[in-house]
Amino acid sequence: MRRVALHGGDVLHGDGLELRGNTLWVVHNVSNTISRWHVFDDGASARLERKVTDEALQIPTTMVRSRGRTLVVRSQFDKGGPMGPGTPQMPFTVATVNGI
């Protein structure tokens, strides 16, 4: 294992990750954010390319890229889970995020 130098941002609260070629997508659960990174060929550093934050992501926990779309699992951890009181709305859903 080795550290990767990040330029332009961080991966704080990063949960789900997907790496394809030199592109890394990260879902940040607490901040309801998805970030896209360019990983340099040596794997020693990465540069933030884009970041999207939206409360509608409902504490995302994981993601997958499919046909140019980013599909994100909405955990609702803030509704009766480890991050708050209440009751989650059933069924749990997946958000589609374009352009990230």
Please tag this protein with its features:
100 residues; five-stranded mixed sheet; three-stranded antiparallel sheet
Helix content: under 10%
Number of helices: 0
First and last CA, distance: 27 Å
Share of residues in strands: over 45%
Q: What's the number of domains?
A: 1
For the biggest β-sheet, the strand order reads: 1-5-4-3-2
Radius of gyration: 14 Å
- The tally of strands reads 8
List SSEs in N-to-C order.
EEEEEEEE
The mean pLDDT is: 92
**Contiguous runs where pLDDT drops below 50 for at least 5 residues:** none
Structural category is mainly beta
- Assembly context of the chains: single chain
What's the story with the biggest beta sheet? Answer: 5 strands, mixed
Q: Name the overall outline.
A: globular
How would you describe this structure to a colleague?
This protein starts with a strand and ends with a strand. It has strands at 5-7, 14-20, 23-28, 33-39, 45-53, 60-66, 69-74, 94-97. The chain is an all-beta fold. 0% of the residues lie in helices and 49% in strands. The protein contains no helices and eight strands. The chain has one domain (5-97). Strands 1-5-4-3-2 form a five-stranded mixed β-sheet, with no helix packed on it. A three-stranded antiparallel β-sheet has the order 6-7-8, with no helix packed on it.
